[in-house]
Structures are given as C-alpha cells and as structure tokens.
Design a protein that fits this description.
Blueprint: E1 6-9, E2 17-21, E3 27-32, H1 33-52, H2 56-67, H3 84-88, H4 90-116, H5 139-142, H6 150-169, H7 179-190, H8 201-206, H9 210-220
Parallel strand pairs: 1-3
Antiparallel strand pairs: 2-3
Length: 221
Amino acid sequence: MQGIPFVTDSTVGEVNAYAACNEQHMPLMAMTDGLLQIESYVAQLRATDEVFGTPKLEAYLRYLAKNQRPREPIVAPPAGLVDPVQSADYRKVVRQHQLLEEQIAFVLGHELAHHHLGHTGCANGQSGQRDVTAIDVLRRATRVVPFINMPNEMWADEVGVWDLLTAGARRQGYHWTEQGALLTLDFFSRLDPLTLDSLVFAFANSHPNPALRVGPIQQTA
C-alpha cells in the first residue's frame, strides 16, 4: 500500500471518501473537500466541548441538519458559536489536532484497506507512484468502490482500525485512538434524516448504517 496517492475531490457539497482506480488501472484514495471540512469543524467543536464543558458540537450538528442544502458548500458554524478566546486556547488547539488526525487517519486507513483486501481490483502490488491529474478524480467514470457491498465495508472498517492504531502507536507523544473513527460515524448517524436527498447521499449509498459500524470498531480497538 506504500505510495498509493491521496487526492482531494472538490465536488461541492459532497461528503465522502473512496478507494478508486484511474483510467490506467492504477490505485488511488480520495476524500472530498466536504468531508475534510466536516471533520475539521467536528474536531474543533469537540475539542472545545472537552476543554470547556460546552455543547457546541451538538449545536453545530443541529444547525447543519437544518441549513445544509444539496450540492451547496458545507455550512460553517453559525456566528457566535465559536468563541475567539476558547478557540485560541492552547489546550483546545492541541486536542483539536489530535482529533482531526485521528479522524483522517481512520478514513484513509479504511480506504487503503479496500485496496489491500482486493475490493477494488486495481492495486495488485502496484505502488501507485505517479503524477495525479484531474482525470484521476472523474469520480463516476473511474471509481471502483465495493458496489454497496456492506460486508466489504465492515471488513475495511476492521482493517482501517488496525491501520489507525498501529500507525498511532508509532507516533511520538500522543498515540491515536479509535475516537476519531467514532466521531466520524457519529456525524453520519446524527444526520441520518439528511441522507436520502442531500450532501451525504453518496456515502449513505455505499456504506452500512453508521450505528451498525460502531460496535465492531470498538471491539476491534
């Protein structure tokens, strides 16, 4: 899996991540800008809640569910929700980085797992080292995802947690935990009513119900 490139997908309003093959049948992994934005807001507000005992993440998720529209930019926290003093607090900033790294590490570990487990059919020992161009992220034409294969998704979760915790244990100082995985799934489960016709439609169509994934992830960790 070493060298499989990570690319971002700028599709407005889409919150997703995927393992794919390009037109040359070479592997890549991708996250949409929308998911990266969501993960950053969740990490920021969860860290604030942990340090200051506030309910800001809950407030943001309610606000997002009410105001997000399909194919539109991700709704930012409303004015006044983020306190400048709390936002700059050293303890909060450190915790925010820890949570964000854990979230992204789980997502990318999950997508690498799809290649490693042979779900995409395009890794086959190839490192993927090459220049990534716009053609690589023509999503509908070149994605090779598990075709709504829920058992494969659960399997990738398990291997993704192993990736996350193994990499995290090798870090200096703070060691990653499964908290980032659980935060990511909590976001999707809390916005379940939104999934039928909005920003998380693609994710909901290719992944099991988030609530069903929590137990196996905790057990694996």
